[in-house]
Amino acid sequence: MSKEIQTVAQNTNFKAVCVGPWAEIAQFAAGEVKGKVFLKDALGTSGSELSVGALPAHTALPFFHAHKQNEEVYIVLQGSGKMQVDEDVFDLKEGSVVRVSPKGSRSLKSGAEGLIYLCLQTKAGSLEEWTGKDAVFTQTPAKW
Hints:
The protein is mainly beta and 144 residues long. It has two helices and ten strands; from the N terminus they run βββββαβββββα. A hairpin with a 2-residue loop joins β3 and β4 (33-34).
């Protein structure tokens, strides 16, 4: 049985969930893929997909993949490993951040201590505004 995502709080303008400690990500399963949790449906996102993945020590994803439209950004939270994009192989460690274009064929392999990572998927070329141009300061009073 796969671990469940817990809803923490929600309102019209937000939804907060908890997947638990990073060390427990391996308890999730996304279909046949163990150690992976997709958050789009849980959060109700409309412009991105976010997933968290965990690979045990010395384990590779069982496939390479590319996308039709979406680029991905991988953020290593814990551990180390290697990533291959097309013919290029490079090291990953905690704090590594990698963007892969839709057509890049990619896969991951963990190192001796395993690998826990975030993967953010968005439509390539869709960002029109970002923090510097899109942010609007509000007068919401702090309640903490």
